[in-house]
Amino acid sequence: RQGSELSGWAMGRWTYEGIDLNHNFADLNTALWDAEDNDLVPHEFPNHYIPIPEYYTFANATVAPETRAVIDWMQRYPFVLSANLHGGELVVTYPFDMTRTYWKAQELTPTADDGVFRWLATVYATSNLAMASEERRLCHYDDFTRFGNIINGANWHTVPGSMNDFSYLHTNCFEITVELSCDKFPHASELPAEWENNRESLLLYMEQV
Question: What number of other Cβ atoms are within 10 A of residue 84's Cβ?
Fold first, then answer.
């Protein structure tokens, strides 16, 4: 009864311990940008494979076991391409997810590989049946069709500690977020249609490796 499009953005975001996994990865952006502002990159501070801050590794740090497990997984396997799947919108977002100006809720914040990220996002969006449909409707109030159904994550809304930014800065993996459907909690009967909407997109995206 809670499902479908009526549940709101917050439903399903937090773990049992009350941690939002979408904001739970180490913030490596701030360290990089501070180093850039002080002309320390790349000779004194790296612009890739940025180490995890010590505070984040402490036993009492607010890091979910799920987050630690994903980081361990990333460090064991050298992924180069990734996507995480969300619901509640129809759009593909790409890093950076966090605004460079810390007090801004929205700000275009591209990476040094912006062209590659825009290409990856476009490959997914243009082959997604729901996004590419001429009958595509707005999910809420943002008209992403104006941008080809892709957007820089920070230019939509800032997300400190996102997995996309962490993957890119810590492991050199190019990761995007796919908002799969207006319906955040589709009913079981709707899942076959959701699979058809995304099947070709997923295959084409993987081929970009």
Answer: 16
